[in-house]
Amino acid sequence: MAKGKRQHKEPTKKQIAVSRREKKQQKRVLIALGVVAILVLGVALAGLFDQLVAKPSRPVAVVNDVRIRTDEYQSRVLYERFMLDTVMRNLQTQLSLLDPEDPANEFVANYYQQIASQTNQQRLGVDRQTLDDMVDEQLVSQKAAELGLNVSEDELDDAIRARIASLSGFLTEAQATAVASTAVAVTATAETFTPTPEPTPTSTLTATLVTTDTPDLASEIPTPAPTPTRHIMTEDEFNQNYADYLSLLKEQADLTEAEYRHIIEAQLLFDKVYQHFADQEPTEADQVNISHIQLDTQEEAEAVLERLNAGEDFALVASEVSTDTFTAADGGELGWFLEGELVSRFGGEFESAAFSLSPGKYSDPVPSPAGWHILKVNEHSLHPLSSYQLRTQQQQAFSNWLQEAQSGEGVEILWDPGMAPPDPLLERSANPAGGSIPVNSSNQ
Predict the structure, then answer these.
(1) Residue 219: phi, psi to the nearest 5?
(2) How far apart are CA 444 and CA 431, in angstroms?
(3) What distance in Å separates the CA atoms of residue 263 and residue 246, rounded to the nearest whole number?
(4) Are strands 284-295 and 333-338 parallel, antiparallel or unpaired?
(5) What is the pTM of this model?
(6) 143-165 burial string, b = 16+ CB within 10 Å, else e?
(7) 124: exposed, middle or buried (C-beta count within 10 Å: 0-12, 13-18, 19+)?
(8) Contact call for residues 356 and 377 (beta carbons, < 8 A)
(9) Mapped to the 3 state alphabet, what secondary structure does the chain carry?
(10) What is the mean pLDDT of the chain?
């Protein structure tokens, strides 16, 4: 064997044992690192799943086993914010066009400011209001299914067409036809109306005994310019404007066409269910027709009562002494009232007297916020409702059903403010340097 060549030595038992321990330790470290990596990946995947799947599908409310998803709610909030922000921008544009130095603009400016203030209040509460609206829409949808009510595709298309036409300042063909039909009906009514004959112009005697015809003043009044005819939207205009509007909704509110159609469909269903309840309301009801004499003090009322007890005519006394100048000339007649309508105006004691007296009888002096009254019941019978009364009864019937449905056991609200999408407007309000939509204006 050559000099200097080393001979291979076998490891000792001790070296082998040390080597085995080191390998085991390395294996344990690798296993531990793998476990940590798996845990980290699991946490990351869990967070990603929660963010992309669990949170969007988490319900903000459950309505009779129907879940309103967070992502559906957030999309709707963005839409409602966009609509209100658009109104605010339009109002500010209108305000900026008014000359603040012109006193004639003060009323218009104040009107715009009032609307802007109301819109701003709606904007601040839109996140919660949107939740309430979506719950109501689900309740209405379920009621519509129960009643067999639905919205056809043609009805939905017509409603969207009308909405796009309105946004563009146009009319649809259906709207133009309705306007024309109304005009024809008005013309027909005018043609059947027999006017009071106008006197034939007579000669007027002048100071110089020269006769001249009375001038025709109507001929001197300039003919007003005709009202511009609104444009009827064509199919091409609808398609283009609708596409533009959908693009705007997608950009500003991340709303798809299907989601927009669903919103319009919900509004149409709302109207149909409301009409169902409205149609159930009777058009006549038990009412009283009353007159009254209003006085400032109890002593004055007692004095009037003595006159009535002495046999003086109620209507004549009312015309002479009643402080209610709106009804005094008509003998104090207030008109027909349903039970409950008099309370807000005159108080409970006044209404109790009105519905307890027999027709033709009058009351002792009755106090109210307006003073003292002696009231007389002219009639008490089943009487047709006025248009205002009927509309109020219909609204109340629908409202009663909706409130009962909202408080049902099947409605569960799971919403909290953190479920709403971030609001740039609130962020700008918190940071004035970022700007915000003002409510007040120098035009005020």
Answers:
(1) -70, -20
(2) 25
(3) 13
(4) antiparallel
(5) 0.72
(6) bbeeeebebeeeeeeebbbbbbb
(7) middle
(8) no
(9) CCCCCCCCCCCCHHHHHHHHHHHHHHHHHHHHHHHHHHHHHHHHHHHHHHHHHHHHHCEEEEECCEEEEHHHHHHHHHHHHHHHHHHHHHHHHHHHCCCCCCHHHHHHHHHHHHHHHHHHHHHHCHHHHHHHHHHHHHHHHHHHHHHCCCCCHHHHHHHHHHHHHHHHCCECHHHHHHHHHHHHHHHHHHHHCCCCCCCCCCEEECCCCCEEECCCHHHHCCCCCCCCCCCECCHHHHHHHHHHHHHHHHHHHCCCHHHHHHHHHHHHHHHHHHHHHHHHCCCEEEEEEEEEEEECCHHHHHHHHHHHHCCCCHHHHHHHHCCCHHHHCCCCEEEEEECCCCHHHHCHHHHHHHHHCCCCCECCCEEECCEEEEEEEEEEEEEECCHHHHHHHHHHHHHHHHHHHHCCCCEEECCCHHHCCCCHHHHHHHCHHHCCCCCCCCCC
(10) 84
Query: What would the two tokens of residue 5 be?
Result: 């060549």
A 10 A CB-CB count for 418 gives 5
Q: For helices 387-406 and 257-280, what crossing angle results, to 10°?
A: 120
Share of the chain above pLDDT 70, in %: 78
User: Which tens digit of pLDDT belongs to each residue from 268-322?
Assistant: 999 999 999 999 999 999 999 999 999 999 999 999 999 999 999 999 999 999 9
Specify the pLDDT at position 199: 43
What the block records as the tokens of 394 is: 């219909």
Residue listed under structure tokens 């005994």: 209
Q: What does the pLDDT look like over 204-215, one tens digit per residue?
A: 333 333 334 444
Residue 402: other Cβ atoms inside 10 A: 18
φ/ψ bin of 109: left (φ > 0), alpha (ψ from -120 to 50), beta (otherwise): alpha
Dihedral (Cα; 330, 332, 334, 340), 10-degree rounding: 180
Give which of 286, 366, 289 is closest to 334, Cα–Cα: 289
Q: What is the pLDDT of residues 233-268, one digit of tens each?
A: 999 999 999 999 999 999 999 999 999 999 999 999
**Domains in the chain with CATH codes:** 285-384 (3.10.50.40)
Cα dihedral 92→94→97→103 (10° resolution): -100
Beta bridge partners of 411: 63
Give the model's pLDDT for residue 442.
Answer: 40
Output the pLDDT for position 21: 77
Of residues 209 and 158, the one with the higher pLDDT is: 158
